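Board work, copied verbatim: 3,4-dihydroxyphenylacetate 2,3-dioxygenase
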Amino acid sequence: MGKLVFAAKVAHVPTMYLSEQDGPFKGCRQSAVDGHREMGRRMKELGVETVIVLDTHWLVNNAYHINGNAHFKGVFTSNEFPHLLADMPYEHVGNPEMADKIAKIATEEMGVTVRSHHIDSLELEYGTLIPMWLMGAKEYGFKVVSVACLCTVHDHMESATVGKAIRKAIEESEGNYAIVASGSLSHAIHPNTALKTMDHFFTISNEFYKQVDLRALDLWKEGRFKEFTAMLPLYAKTCHGEGLMHDTAMLLGALGWDSYDKKVEIVTPYFEAAGTGQVNAVFPVAA
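↓ predict structure ↓
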């Protein structure tokens, strides 16, 4: 029987990549980088073999989609921020059997259409690439499955059902698994007119978004997910949550949705980035 042994919600901002490169941004996101590395170490210690990444940078306009390739290799440049994230080499091993199992369970047993793809030219997005790079997926030998979570026409309860399917697929398999929800909290990027100094990389676009983010994190730290799941759809819409926070809905679906009551551990404290609110947090998994 397979086990979910680790779960987290993480940031993937491009300045985390630049923080590791020589230049004016070097070291600027050290706390966030250290948080990812700590999570990688914990996953290795827990015997994780496959990481399922819920990627809010993979946009889909119909159904749900999983990159089920057996191998990923390439050089990535962001279409969104080519001046910040360019020529990033990557190579990972996939887990096509798990991708297919998730899609089968979600579609045939739970009534939500999920498609698993085996297309060599279907590349990974940086919502997967940055966390897997910093968490040491290649070095530690983690297999990678990437799930699209920039969901434009989807319902949060559908996404929670996909999360439930992920958990069931894990438990019907063998080995140890991690789920990493990759995306921000609020995600209202600064308007273009504000991009005149370096300050915009390190501030939020509106204090309202920050205060709602902090309240959400208080609920997480207190294990109050009955309240959080009730507020999630409006929170995601009003505060422009990245991917409308469908990654978070899937993560909580895998953990029990509104019945989940574990106190979340904040590994990297809340930080502001290009208008958005970010955090690295571990969601304890029930034995």
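The chain has a mean pLDDT of 96.
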